[in-house]
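Morning. Coffee machine broken again, so started the prediction first thing and wrote up yesterday's gels while waiting. Chain of 422 residues, entered below exactly as on the submission form.
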Amino acid sequence: MDALSLSWIATSAVLAAAIFLVPFGRLADIHGRRKIFVYGISTFTAFSLLSGLAPSGTVLILTRALQGVGAAMIFGTGIAMLTSAYPVAERGRVLGISVAATYFGLSLGPFIGGFLTQHLGWRSLFFMNALLGLCIIMLVLWRLKSEWAEARGEKFDIPGSLLYTVSLTMLMIGFSKLPGATGMWTLLAGLAGFAAFVAWERRAHKPLLDVTLFARNVVFAYSNAAALINYCATYAVTFLLSLYLQYIKGLDPQIAGAILVAQPIMMALFSPLAGRVSDTIEPRVVASIGMAIISVGLALLAFVGNETSIVLITIYLLLLGFGFALFSSPNTNAVMSSVEKKLYGVASATLGTMRLTGQMFSMGIVMLIFSLIMGKTQITPEYYPKFLQSMQLAFSIFSALCVLGVFASLARGKVRNNQSTM
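Came back before lunch.
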């Protein structure tokens, strides 16, 4: 497979997860979060197995997209179930543990993935996913007996769901194809579709997403905006630094991966603490401090050059990881605490959509910078100066985005006032 096709193996899953998150979050509120979660794990497991058996690249891209559909059911319900199951006073601690588990998985992933690929081939990655999925299904059926469906009996907004999925798909694909004319027209079509979606949702009796929530619920709106900005600014960091460490510093992939793991390790260590702190201190304060630390870390990375030491880069990664830990679980706590119980699924899914959309935009920004500065070339020694210029510009933009994110985080207001009415 060529490089573009290979990129779609990853992109297809992320894109599918993003466009189906909110619809499945709403379905979970109506029909039961546990039920949709089990369907999601089952779908993810089945298509993990089929991905491992894929006879061609085209089939693999398709099965990965369907894997993403299963992931949307999981992402749209997991946080909502945790929020439903624990009292407000313990919410930050529980969400912190959840975030820590996520980043612990991200820390282990490169090592386990590299080992399996080297010794058993790439198909073993998907077979391992399928095996773990079966274990999770059995555990959920055995231990998770409760069900939550506070919006049971309400209608599902099918027209709104179709408008949403088509518009978000066009928006993401269009952004990935900039600065070409096709990308611009696709992006504009996506924006027009979103305008139609908002107009429809404002009139719908039981909307897929109550868009007025963003206007009348300041905490919900600004917390989601902060999450979108944060993921826009941070997701491509690992991608850029992995290329830097391998091409500029000449490290092999295994050593580069070991260095990059410093960031998720810090997230895993400090996320539970940050979540617990956000149970007693306003989440916006903790999250805003975290965003400010991230902005400083990205600004420092903007000055990385040929002579920057590996030790200094590792320190910057540790700083970023600490900042992200302070931001992530308190911000999630703020989002989930700002809505009533029957909207937990949609709130969780909306936050997940901000995460995945931000990740897509983050990579889109990098690809756009590469296209403008380097063009469609391989990273060979004669292009190293242009690669460094591209990387430094990307980190400068990301740092500036995080400064805006600090203001969005601070502007959200107090969560405690909302909690008293939940």
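The chain has two domains: 3-156+208-419, 157-207. Going to sketch it on the whiteboard this afternoon.
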